[in-house]
Amino acid sequence: MQKNKKISAAPGWAHLNLNEVPNVKITPPGPKSKELHKRCTKYFKGLSSQVKLFPVVFDYGKGCELVDVDGNRYIDFSSGIYVTTLGHCHPKVTEAVQKMAGKLMNCHDFTTEIKTKLVEKLAEILPGDLNGFQFYDSGTTAVEAGQRVLRAATGKSEMISCFYDYHGKTYGGVSLGHIRSFVYGPCRAPGMHMVPRPNTYRPMFTRVDGSVDTEKYIEFFDEYIDKGTVGNVAGFVLEPIQGWGGSVMPPDDFFPKLRKYCDEKKILLMIDEVLTSFGRCGKWLCMENWGVVPDIVTIGKGFGNGFPVTCVAVREQYKESFESISASSSYGGNPMACAAALACIEAIEDENLLERSTYLGELALKRMEKMKAEHPIVGDVRAKGCLMGIELVKDKKTKEPFDKAGTLVYQKAFQKGLAWIPAGHILRMSPPIIMEDEVLLKGLDIIDEAIGETEKELLK
Prior knowledge:
By secondary structure, the protein is an alpha/beta fold. It folds into 3 domains: 14-76, no CATH class; 91-350, Type I PLP-dependent aspartate aminotransferase-like (Major domain) (Aspartate Aminotransferase, domain 2, 3-Layer(aba) Sandwich), CATH 3.40.640.10; 352-378 and 445-460, no CATH class. It has helices spanning 31-41, 49-53, 79-82, 91-101, 113-125, 139-154, 171-175, 214-228, 254-265, 335-350, 353-374, 403-415, 437-458; strands at 58-62, 65-68, 73-76, 130-136, 158-162, 192-195, 233-238, 268-273, 296-299, 310-315, 378-384, 387-392, 418-419, 426-429. The strands form 3 sheets. A 7-stranded mixed sheet has the order 4-10-9-8-7-5-6, sandwiched between helices. The protein has a 4-stranded mixed sheet with strand order 1-2-3-13. Strand 11 and strand 12 form a beta hairpin. It is globular, with a radius of gyration of 22 Å.
């Protein structure tokens, strides 16, 4: 961590008094939560594991705090599952959306002044020559559009993604990811392939010293394309850090080597940054952490801080491909969405939040390393900005996943006033990047306590 550099945290409107938050007045989920949840789920189905494991009903949020209908107050380590990167109800974003909602809500894909300002700003802040844009209202829709751009730009149709990737819940997105369900059909979409990617904690290919051998992965990709495809590969589609897969970080040399390989083979590189972009990992794009510019990139979640707005950005030479893919959509780029996204960019710049996110990641990693040293079930910890993970195992040598422990730790920490994200044996954290140091450390202390209690319960 950088010494003597405590970057300013949350502004006054979002200050959290740890004498008041977290504050669990009634064991959650409380009676009001239970009653509302029962009424709602009589009709509303298909809930996430996050809600099924802890069916609390939230009333409101402010900054890094969430309050449920029973009056319990929580530290938010979820950000609406990676969405409210700037905290709940950031005044700059709220004001921008409210103002535009009273002026112009939708005019299809006609040009507006706010859209013009947004695309000009994106061209300014994004790396390299990523200066062609189209807007959508969900990450999945953006991924589907990115796939169409891949095909239009190359004239090819096959795509390669990686084990444990997540790219949405439409047929095209699911075909690139790890989701399995008969409702999508008995097979992936034609031409969709999956390969292993480097995992620093669970590597498939290693060097003599046990470190990840990224060269072996690239060699495998080359062999697979030669033998496992029909030679019609348009591009690779990857997450920079796997979110749904458990905050899985690549080794630092992986993406530079993959970029070089794609250039040599004339294969495009599409990066799905719906989860990792706009401050979550300390940069506008997570790929900037490795100095790599994708050919196509999808942006979302924190892009609008809760307002549904996403983007497909492409490099200069591919932006005309939008013309041939029927790129427009009913809600994409509507004035309210553009106002929210532009306000988010301005807030990140004004409050130095890219630097703040990086700082918080370093602070969290130091604290989590201490947890790893002290707890027998903590196998690995990782962080890149405010995207963090703790992997629980039954044995540190065998690295056998400990799913039951993951569930218990999630529930116990939630009961102590920490709202966050489950993922089987991997604990996922995505606190707002405006969070104060002491609030972040308090949240990690709660997790530490929950892990200790779980160990006493399961390691008898």
